[in-house]
Amino acid sequence: MAIVNVDHLAGRRVLSQNGESIGYIEEIVAESQGDDFVVTEFHIGIFAAFERLSASSVGTAVLDLFGLRRREGLYRIPWDKLDISDPMKPKLLCTKEELGGMKAEPESGT
C-alpha cells in the first residue's frame, strides 16, 4: 500500500489513459481505519468543486441559481481506478468510457 500526502493530490489534473484531461481532483474521500485514514474514492470535475459549496445554504442557493446541483460532470472514481504512483500526474487505470458508470447519481428531490 502506498502512502501519499493528499496535499500533493488535491487540485491535480487527472489524465485518461490516452493523456486527455478529464478534470481535476476536487475532493478526496477517506474512511477511518484504526489510527489511519484510507482513501476510498476521488471526486473529479468542475461539479465536484461546486458540490463542496452545497454544504452551506448559500452554496446550495448558488448551485440552484445556475442549475448545477444535478451533478453532471462529477466523477466518483474508486481508489483502485486511479494511478497515483506519481502524485503530480494522476492517471486513470480504466477507460474514460468506463467512468460513465461511475458518475454521481442526482440527489433525490433535485
Kindly summarize this structure in a few lines:
This protein has 110 residues and is an alpha+beta fold. The chain has one domain: SH3 type barrels (Roll), CATH 2.30.30. The chain has 2 helices and 6 strands.
Task: Tell me what you see in this structure.
α1 crosses α2 (57-65). This protein has 110 residues and is an alpha+beta fold. Helix content is 15%, strand content 30%. The chain has a single domain (11-94), classed as SH3 type barrels (Roll), CATH 2.30.30. β5 (82-83) and β6 (91-92) form a beta hairpin. A four-stranded antiparallel sheet has the order 1-2-3-4. The chain has a two-stranded antiparallel ribbon with strand order 5-6. The protein has two helices and six strands. Mean pLDDT is 77; it is low at 106-110. 18% of the residues are buried.
By CATH, the topology is SH3 type barrels
What integer value in Å does the Rg equal?
A: 14 Å
Sketch the major β-sheet: 4 strands, antiparallel
Number of strands: 6
How much of the residues is beta strand, in percent? Answer: 25-35%
Low-confidence stretches: 106-110
- From the N-terminal CA to the C-terminal CA, the straight-line distance is 38 Å
Which geometry do the CA atoms define? globular
Total number of distinct structural domains: 1
